[in-house]
Design brief:
The structure is a homodimer of 400-residue chains. By secondary structure, chain A is α/β, with parallel strands linked by helices. Chain A has helices spanning 15-30, 45-56, 62-86, 118-125, 151-162, 196-204, 212-221, 274-284, 313-323, 351-361, 385-395; strands at residues 2-7, 34-39, 91-94, 101-103, 112-115, 129-133, 136-138, 144-146, 167-172, 193-195, 225-229, 237-240, 253-269, 292-294, 301-308, 328-341, 366-372, 375-381. The first copy, chain A, folds into two domains: 2-173, Acetylglutamate kinase-like (Carbamate kinase), CATH 3.40.1160.10; 254-395, VC0802-like, CATH 3.30.2130. In chain A, the strands form four sheets. In chain A, strands 3-6-2-1-9-11-12-10 form an eight-stranded mixed beta sheet, with helices on both faces. In chain A, strands 14-15-13-16-18-17 form a six-stranded antiparallel beta sheet.
Chain lengths: 400, 400
């Protein structure tokens, strides 16, 4: 098989850890596979460099930040190649530029435009373990760019897609994707397989393992993504297209997103364009509105509710006060979003009603509801969040 | 004026120091000059990265070492550019590649082939302070290369030559070139000007400020080199072509090289080819022979003397024992080389005899003598080395 493996910051956080990674890579090679490795900077390194820049200014220019930050992954890729060579294996370290990763011109948050796989393929054909510095690329002008948060995952997925690798393994310090956060529900089980769409729901709902950008790219490029731990031999979770998942569980997991605040406008004039006005203004201020609920009004007025990330609530208040859309606005930061996710619910009814039943039995009031084909999300009081997760986890038999 | 300034590791050793460097650069800009800055890695950084690599192997592959080591200068160049930008100046950081520094393929000890100055010149014309990562370049294949010890000085000199800068200032933690080592002779005076050739004699004789490679390149490219301290405002020493030095002192300074060992072969057969045999063999083992003395022999045998760096003496012993050139070989690590250097001696006689007189008066026995147009070097017993320096310094009135 042709395998892309990506090792995150904690996985390469010390020289000892890099040595462990080298051993793991060699085990893959000895099993008969070809591998391309993508590495992050040693944990703490990117923060250190960012702090260095902030010594001079809180707003360093992004072109120079990219040059600065990209050095961290160059160090790890060189060291891992050296570690592999020292164990008698042919290895070569490549910068983002040398790996042919071309991006747009948006410094510190670039998007990958294309990957010129010539060099990677040549080195692979010559029997090398190819070690690529993640997180970075170059623009068409030859400027160094970086891909923003989760950038090394993106590098790995994009490379895997471009060289049509059989799998792309993302190594972190957690075992994979769980039916829910094991810190909330110790009975949470690791999932063997999950579809891209379910993963996207999980990620946006708070699972920290993978950024949505990477999952979206994997879906687009049809890359079989595996998240697993570099600290043990456990198997991890395969994220793949729905067709590859034979036995579709009704519900795959329960997600909890604590970074939510609810905004409710009472007595909004129920006339065309009022929602557009509010949400355009919020979008203009780069506030990420999540759930939006509007009911048909009575007597020409209606109630409008939506949620925003908790840390954007203050900014939201300012915007709302400015546009004066309603006399009575209720802001509540003490809410969480609990979501039931599963591709199986596409073909089964009753999933949503079971969720409502379950919370009702626990006397948890549901403030807002939003559904999609594969999830049911509910806004509840923060203090009931973990109880809601546990009772839903049990109601859908996820601990079995 | 168009000025190239190079700041060494201690000059950019901390964020505070980088800030000081930024202020100095701005002072130069405000005086109406255009500047290109070349920076080393923060002091200790290159050693740290080398130690990292040595965790895995004592002999890391050089291609990967170059990728690893080149990251240090990228960090400093980015940070200095950010510091300058934060003070309201237009600045841009360039890697060796972006600065157009092309080298041969010899990783970790590459030579600069050519500099494509297009990018540097464009950025200068746009009113930027151009900050270049020193020590590094790229090969024609697009591989990252580094220039070896003193590499950032070389980058600076090569850039200065290519853009025909008026001066190239090399900032370190010392004030410039002294008539001799001030730790040996506190009356040593800083030289205002010195010719390339004198500097070359000084450098090879132990002055640590500048590597010979940089001085040779400056001579070749006719770059006016100034070495000065980044820790004060003192003027430094201009190293320039002899024609630019109006008042040529008879003697510019006294150098002491402690890293010397003497080898004497007694009763060598005085026949053609014997010297060639010995020194070819030593060259083959990469032993740097310095002084060589051979007298016309008597009765078909002669004595042959030469010096090697003290740390290469053991290797030299092995070679000499193998070729068995003479029955009696005398190895003496306890010698030093004292040299009197000055372009003025080209046109004046009596400089050498004054040196011999001076040492004779101090009862210092001269074991070997070697002269060139601009220097007289003498091998003496190590314990008399500093006394010899002080007495010669005084004899030529260098303290006046």
């Amino acid at each position: 098989m042709l395998i892309v493996q990506k090792y995150g910051g904690t996985s390469v956080g010390t020289l000892e850890r890099i040595d462990e990674v080298a051993k793991r890579v060699i085990k893959t090679i000895e099993a008969g596979h070809n591998v391309v490795i993508v590495v992050s900077a040693m944990s703490g390194e990117t923060n250190k460099l960012t702090e260095y820049a902030k010594y001079f200014t809180q707003t360093p220019q992004k072109r120079e930040m990219d040059l600065l930050l990209s050095s961290g992954e160059r160090v790890t890729s060189s060291l891992l190649a050296i570690a592999l060579q020292s164990k008698g294996y042919k290895a070569v370290a490549l910068t983002g530029r040398q790996a042919g990763i071309y991006t747009d011109e948006v410094h510190t948050g670039a998007r990958i435009d294309k990957i010129d796989t010539k060099k990677i393929n040549t080195y692979l054909q010559e029997g090398n373990i190819v070690v690529v510095a993640g997180f970075q690329g170059i623009t068409n002008n030859g400027e160094v760019s970086t891909l923003g948060r989760g950038g090394s995952d993106l590098s790995a997925v994009a490379i895997a897609g471009s060289i049509t690798a059989d799998i792309c393994e993302i190594y972190t310090d957690v075992d994979g994707i769980y039916t829910t956060d094991p810190r909330i529900e110790p009975k949470a089980k690791k999932l063997n397989k999950i579809s891209y769409d379910e993963m996207l729901e999980f990620a946006s709902l708070g699972a920290k393992v993978l950024q949505n950008r990477s999952v979206e790219l994997a879906k687009k490029l049809n890359v079989n993504l595996i998240t697993r731990s570099s600290f043990n031999e456990n198997e991890g979770t395969l994220i793949t297209k729905e067709e590859n998942i034979m036995e579709k569980p009704l519900v795959s997991g329960i997600a909890l997103d604590k970074n939510q605040a609810r905004v409710t406008l009472r007595g909004v004039k129920d006339e065309p364009g009022i929602a557009a006005k509010i949400f355009n203004k919020l979008a203009h201020e780069h506030i990420n509105v999540d759930m939006i609920i509007q009911n048909i009004g009575l007597d020409g007025v209606t109630n409008l509710g939506f949620t925003v990330p908790e840390n954007e609530l203050e900014e939201t208040k300012k915007v709302m006060n400015k546009i004066n859309a309603s006399k009575i606005i209720d802001f509540d930061p003490n809410v969480v979003k609990v979501s039931v996710v599963g591709v199986g619910m596409k073909s089964h009814s009753g999933v949503a009603s079971k969720a409502f039943d379950t919370l009702a039995k626990e006397n948890i009031n549901i403030q807002m509801i939003s559904t999609s084909e594969i999830k049911v999300s509910m806004i509840v009081d923060e203090k009931y969040g973990e109880l809601a997760v546990r009772s839903l986890h049990s109601a859908y038999n996820l601990d079995k």
